[in-house]
Structures are given as structure tokens and as C-alpha cells.
Design a protein that fits this description.
This protein is α+β, with helices and mostly antiparallel strands. The chain is 44% helix and 15% strand. The protein is built from 10 helices and 7 strands. The chain has a 4-stranded antiparallel beta sheet with strand order 6-1-4-7. It has a 3-stranded antiparallel beta sheet with strand order 3-2-5, with no helix packed on it. Strand 2 and strand 3 form a beta hairpin. It starts with a strand and ends in a 9-residue tail after the last helix.
Length: 243
């Protein structure tokens, strides 16, 4: 999630799990998610009603325009929680109700101009219900250079490009590769492959997990690719490790 994101849960059960946080929502609840995070989302239909969310990306370019218009200046980096449940009120509920026709009739494309107005409306309503969100929304500082080892050990299973890992740890691609080599003694792609396969072996051998149940969660794009890589490293197919 590269942008700050506002989520309304319409139907079903929503769970977001990051390296350090787990948060859930039922229908009618709202969540504000901090930019520059990796996370897994679980979507669960409830009571035969299906599943539906409305997701609004609060892109930094628009937030900068609002900050200029409203003369908002933030002189320190946001250090609060990364995911915030937003208290519902009549104005926010009415705002999301105004979006439902577009969700239910996707053939009616929302224009760029209307879309921008809707996003601005969402920002103003958020600031009205939670004025303390100013630092959350208008922190335009670059991601600071975080602990690379801790971040990678917690997030190795996400299937994203190395360039995005670099960006999320506050580094250029060159700086990321240099720091990575110093810490892990190998290139990022090689380490990611090794770490994911080691985790796969542990889950299969110790937790009796089926290969088909874990390969996607460990960042492999297909079961065949996973099985081939696993056999190449450990000498036999993952199914042969099952007891």
C-alpha cells in the first residue's frame, strides 16, 4: 500500500495483517491505512450476503494540493499508529452512500474530475471527525532508512519487486542492494528465494502443510515454479516431505 487509503466495509468481514498489526472490520466500519506498508488482506463473506468494500486511495499529489489550499504545514514526521479505525458519523456514512451507485454500476465510470472532488471530500470529512489526522495525512517526508534486516525478515513472503522493497525501506535501489549485501551476504533476489524455500520446508515438514496451501503465501507465483525451485534446493519434491 503505497498511498494512504480509506476503506469502508460494506458487507462481510475484512482483516488486515501487517508485520506488527492485525485489525478487523465488520459491515459499516471504516479504516484508514498508512502509506508505505505491506500487508495481507483476508476477505470473508458473511451470512450469505457476499462481500463488498469501498477503497479510496488518498494519493500524495492530491494531499499536497489540499495542504497548499488550506495552508497546512506539518514540520515533523508522523509516528503514530499505522492503521486507524475511524469513528463513523452521519457525514462520513452519507459520503460513502454517495459512492455506492458507482460501485453497483461499474459500467458508469466516475469521471476524473468527480473522482478528485470525492477524494477531497473524504479528506475534509476525516479531518472534521478526527482533527489529529493532519499529521497522518500530510506527512510528506520520505520513508526514513529503517532497519533493513528486521523489515526483510518480517516481510520476505510478499511477492513484490526488489525495487519496492527498496522504496519501502527508505533507500534507492543501489543503496538497498549495497546494504542488503552487507547484512545478508548475498543479493536480495537470491536471499528471498532461499528464505522462502526454508520457510516452505519448515511448514511442510513441521506443520504438515500442503504445498498447494502455502506457495502463494510465500511469494511464489505458481505451484509448478514453487515445486521446481523446492526440488532443486532440497533434492526432492515438496510432496515427498509430507509425512
Amino acid at each position: 500500500m503505497e498511498d494512504n487509503t480509506l476503506i469502508l466495509q460494506v458487507l462481510g468481514h475484512f482483516t488486515l495483517e501487517t508485520a506488527n498489526h492485525r485489525i478487523s472490520m465488520e459491515g459499516g466500519e471504516m479504516l484508514l491505512v498508512r502509506k508505505n506498508q505491506l500487508g495481507e488482506i483476508t476477505k470473508t463473506p458473511m451470512n450469505g450476503e457476499g462481500y463488498q468494500t469501498i477503497v479510496i486511495r488518498l494519493k500524495e499529489e492530491l494531499l499536497r494540493k489540499i495542504a497548499l489550499e488550506e495552508q497546512i504545514e506539518i514540520d515533523r514526521k508522523y509516528i503514530g499508529p499505522s492503521n486507524i479505525l475511524v469513528p463513523g458519523n452521519d457525514f462520513l456514512r452519507a459520503f460513502f452512500q454517495s459512492l455506492l451507485p458507482y460501485v453497483r454500476h461499474p459500467e458508469k465510470k466516475i469521471t476524473t474530475e468527480v473522482g478528485m472532488l470525492k477524494v477531497k471530500e473524504a479528506v475534509y470529512l476525516l479531518l472534521d471527525v478526527m482533527p489529529g489526522l493532519r499529521e497522518f495525512l500530510f506527512d510528506f517526508s520520505e520513508p526514513y532508512k529503517i532497519d533493513l534486516e528486521k523489515f526483510m525478515v518480517s516481510n520476505f513472503h510478499y511477492n513484490i519487486p526488489v525495487e519496492q522493497f527498496a522504496r519501502l525501506t527508505g533507500r534507492s535501489l543501489t543503496g538497498f542492494k549495497r546494504d542488503f549485501q552487507k547484512i545478508f551476504g548475498m543479493a536480495p533476489r537470491q536471499w528471498l528465494q532461499e528464505r522462502r524455500l526454508e520457510e516452505a520446508r519448515y511448514l511442510i515438514e513441521k506443520k504438515n502443510k500442503k504445498p498447494s496451501a502455502i506457495y502463494l503465501d510465500l511469494g511464489f507465483e505458481s505451484l509448478s515454479h514453487f515445486s521446481h525451485s523446492f526440488k532443486k534446493k532440497f533434492g526432492k519434491a515438496p510432496t515427498e516431505w509430507l509425512v
